Amino acid sequence: MVRGTLHPDPKLIEEVLDFCRHIGGSSHIVAAFARSDYASPLPTTKTVPQVLVILRGFQPRLMNYVKVLGASYVTVSAVDEWVFERDVDKGLLGEALACALIFPYATLVNEPYLHSQEVKLKKRLVAELLQSLVMDFPELSYELHIRPEYFMYEALLMRSRLFPPTMYALTNLLGKKEGEMGVDCSLHGFEEALKQLEEDGIVYHSEHYVRISKKFVDDSRSRRVRFADPFKRGQRALFMSLLGLFPQIMNALSQNKEFFSGIQKAFGEDSRIWQRFKDPENYVYVPTATGLVPLASGLDIEAVARKVFSADANAEVTVESMGGILNDVYLVKTFSKGKPIRAVVKRFRDWSNFKWFPLTLWSVGTRTFAVSGNSRLEREWTISRFLDSHGFIVPKVLHVSPGDRLIVMEYFEGEDVGRVVKQVATSTNSDEVAKDLDVIARIGKTLAGVHALGIALGDTKPDNVLIGKKGQICLMDFEQASRNGDAVWDLAEFLYYSGHDISPFVETRRLEKFAETFVSGYVEGGGNVATVRKAGSPKYTKVFSVFTFPHIMFILSNVCRKADKLKT
Length: 568
Hints:
Layout lengths: L9 H15 L3 E8 L14 E7 L5 E8 L2 E9 H10 L14 E5 L1 H26 L8 E2 L1 H15 L2 H11 L3 H21 L3 E4 L2 E4 L1 H9 L10 H21 L3 H13 L14 E5 L2 E4 L3 H12 L8 E6 L3 E10 L2 E10 L8 H6 L10 H17 L7 E5 L4 E5 L3 E3 H10 L3 H23 L2 E2 L8 E4 L4 E3 L6 E2 L3 H14 L7 H17 L4 H7 L2 H7 L5 H12 L7
Parallel strand pairs: 2-4
Antiparallel strand pairs: 1-2, 1-5, 3-4, 6-9, 7-8, 9-10, 11-12, 12-13, 13-15, 14-15, 16-18, 17-20, 18-19
Helix pairs in contact: 3-6, 4-5, 4-6, 5-6, 13-14, 14-16, 15-17, 15-19, 16-19, 17-19
């Protein structure tokens, strides 16, 4: 049975199933499904169907395969039934496999089984989202009126933000007419989950809205929500196996230059594509004297802006979403005394529950994240002020409201370093490359200066460094920063996340030059060579191997390991 809008070639389906049977050997195929074809970011005939086959008694527990069938590359993830069901029930692998059931999919084998697992997964996700709403709005949660669409869009956007390739599935799902059927299919599963939660006494329906039961709110407020420790020995070994297999798939697929050139272009042109999506909280309402109004923060942000900037009485205040992965980030524009004003407002969400398991999963054994919204706001506030007082260019804090978990910062106009990295790797203009390499060197020196103060920034991906109109280096996003933190992580994240933006077909020497320039700048700025060498160790490379091509990881880490030879 095929769901959604996928119209596959029957011959290709049979070839895929034959391949699945070959993979399984004596193991029984419990179910198999494929993601819909509009999930691909490439408008070409060379699509790469992604198939997941669930096998009973499969050894090894999890394995990935790539095969050429006709004109298509097919990727098949084979997983043991027990592992898959634990990912559905408890997020054993951070829903790395189960999340495919959140998006539309095409059933190849055993529709009833997949549908039951889909509803089970969505029931758990809805319960977690309800708990998050209670945590964020402990008093207001008794009065919330929720449309089922909230749970679907929040779950979809959350997974897309955490794993970038998924955002293109969401983009096409919401942006094409043929995606409408897929939206209906996905929403239907959430509606069934809500019916089951109503039978459990967790929610009830009032007209066209879902309401949270008083008992669930009281229970959620009375017990402390603990961030689950998912890393028991068996789970850790299983996920590390997955990290080891993923690069093998990327190596095999990278032989198709057309395919990955297209993906690289899609990432380059649409890195902010999800920002245009409607805020899921537009589907959550609160009662007022004039009726129900959306929970989305626009009105609150506008009020804060008028207060902070003393906006002119008749001045329009516009609030534009800037996205944000784990926070709500808005660009506010208004006028004060006739002068235009722009500022950035961040609302810090609380991640202190199981839904943020994937974040810690990617960095198991390497990095610990601050999860409390208040804790992250405190870090943003204090580290920003500290760096500003020591002469570093950072967005100044204009206003902070810990009770509302809001912070208002000046808007710094600049270009993120991601473009600079890509130009270093691709430009044929030697003068431009030299200019961009100078920027990379100065970033290295700036980071060394921060580390000399005993500060580790914690989130140094290129998007968090801006180049001003006069060439200034502006550092941003300090919610994971700390005193005496992991300086090695800062170097590793900047280098390896930069590799995520570089084409797999870049010339080796260009990539080495980029890394050598950054490392040399860091060392010249007083950075410790031993810190650089540690960034090349497997402890750090394993984390980013999920996002960056293996051969790029090797080149970048090799430069780190040989940092002492670059010291001047």
